[in-house]
Write a structure and sequence with these properties.
- The protein has 326 residues and is an all-alpha fold.
- The chain has a domain of 190 residues: Butyryl-CoA Dehydrogenase, subunit A, domain 3 (Up-down Bundle).
- The protein has 16 helices and no strands.
- Helix 7 packs antiparallel against helix 11, helix 7 crosses helix 12 and helix 13 packs antiparallel against helix 15.
Length: 326
């Protein structure tokens, strides 16, 4: 990613640019969505039990295990852990609430998310074919991935959205959201079809599925990352487009657009070598993207604390609150 070397105070001096003022509480309501009360409850729990972070450094292993067990029993007694279980079994019957709680919990402890995602994954591969493995890793429906992602078909779809004919990737504006989306979609589908072909070759050759996955895991992880980044961008753009003006003011929407542009272009910039190797990015355009990323960093930098505050992370969970001091 590009580095921002502008002098302090030069963060938003672009001609005609006026720094937006973010309504933090309104933005938090947008981010929380329909499960705002659930997320608030989890934030309160994080704040109440924040001392466990320090106790992990001071207690012995056995004492800390006992402490964690006690906390788990206490939290389970509140019934919060049963939000997603069927009502006939004593749960809340709301899977969405359970997911929202788990996601909010990750603001304080990402290790819980990692443990949840990785539990018992190894056994999943024993009876999977090549498409099953790709589904497991990327979460995509890829039954027709090779046919659907042929270069010719993909380029034709892109031409329908962006100007420039065969030069769509050179003619579209750097801040055009359709350009951002198509660049990330091109990368995702190209990588995914490559993974599918490599897995298929291994299966056709009679190799053990686990061994095949081991050999292509770098490619699989790359495809999964490309998929996640494309999904994040699509959701970000769609949300901004459909955002109710009554929920946030114009300045907050401007700030979200800046952040969305920064995410898209910094993602392309971070993987510029791949795009250049596959003929989708010239050296001149790559340099222009870096300049644009620098400019967006200068605009977003004064807004960073407000944007982070909108996630509502309890102050007790901040490991280094002095970093946010004025």
């Amino acid at each position: 990613m590009a580095t921002d070397t502008a002098a302090p105070g030069a963060s938003d001096r672009s001609p005609g640019y006026s720094r937006p003022a973010i309504d933090v509480l309104a933005l938090q309501r947008v981010l929380d969505g329909r499960y705002g009360e659930v997320r608030d409850l989890v934030r309160c729990n994080l704040a109440d039990y924040a001392s466990v972070l320090e106790e992990a450094e001071t207690l012995s292993t056995d004492a800390f295990r006992d402490r964690v067990r006690d906390l788990l029993v206490r939290m389970a007694s509140t019934g919060q852990t049963g939000m997603g279980f069927p009502e006939e079994y004593g749960g809340g019957g709301d899977l969405g609430a359970s997911i929202a709680a788990f996601e909010t919990l990750a603001y304080g402890d990402l290790s819980l998310v990692a443990k949840g995602l990785l539990t018992d994954y190894a056994s999943e591969f024993e009876d999977m074919d090549q498409f099953g493995m790709v589904r497991f890793v990327t979460g995509l429906a890829v039954d027709t991935v090779i046919e659907r992602t042929s270069v010719h078909t993909l380029i034709e779809r892109i031409r329908d959205v962006l100007p420039g004919g065969d030069e769509w990737d050179q003619e579209a504006g750097l801040l055009d959201p359709d350009y951002h989306r198509m660049m990330l979609r091109f990368r995702e589908e190209h990588m995914l079809s490559g993974v599918a072909r490599r897995l298929k070759r291994g299966i056709d050759g009679g190799m053990n599925p686990g061994e095949i996955f081991s050999r292509v895991q770098d490619h699989v992880v790359g495809a999964a990352r490309a998929h996640v980044e494309r999904r994040v961008l699509d959701a970000f753009v769609d949300k901004i487009v459909t955002l109710d003006e009554g929920l946030v003011d114009g300045d907050t929407k401007v700030a979200l657009n800046l952040l969305c542009d920064l995410f898209a272009l910094s993602t392309i910039e971070a993987d510029r070598a791949w795009f250049m190797e596959h003929g989708r990015l010239s050296s001149q355009r790559s340099k222009a993207i870096s300049r644009e990323v620098n400019g967006l960093c200068r605009k977003v930098r004064p807004l960073a604390v407000d944007l982070v505050d909108a996630f509502g992370v309890p102050p007790e969970m901040l490991r280094s609150p002095e970093l946010l001091a004025e």
